[in-house]
Design a protein that fits this description.
By secondary structure, the chain is of the alpha+beta class. It has a single domain, classed as Metal Transport, Frataxin, Chain A. A 3-stranded antiparallel β-sheet has the order 1-2-3, covered by helices on one side. Helix 2 crosses helix 3. The longest helix has 15 residues. The chain is globular and about 35 Å long. The protein starts with 8 loop residues before the first helix and ends with a helix.
Length: about 80
């Protein structure tokens, strides 16, 4: 599954809601998302740009997939449905 080259920060935030991330704060054009479970916390910062540069988007998705202990392809399948 390929990455979208026109993914905006806002649409990525909505997609990451599907795997348990919530907006915890926003400062300027950066949105902080957190996924908090009983044993763990994970925080990521998403730039509210349109589009997000492909390298940064890939890095964010790799970080989320690693935290969820799934492959990037599995993550893309979950958030793009």
């Amino acid at each position: 599954m390929k990455l979208s080259r026109d993914e905006s920060g806002e649409s990525l935030v909505k997609k990451l809601f599907k795997v348990g991330y919530l907006v915890t704060r926003q400062k300027g054009s950066h949105i902080r998302l957190s996924r908090i479970t009983e044993n763990d916390e994970h925080h990521i910062t998403i730039p509210n740009h349109s589009p997000i540069k492909i390298g940064l988007l890939s890095s964010i998705l790799n970080d989320v997939a690693k935290h969820l202990d799934i492959s990037k392809i599995e993550l893309l399948e979950k958030i793009n449905t």
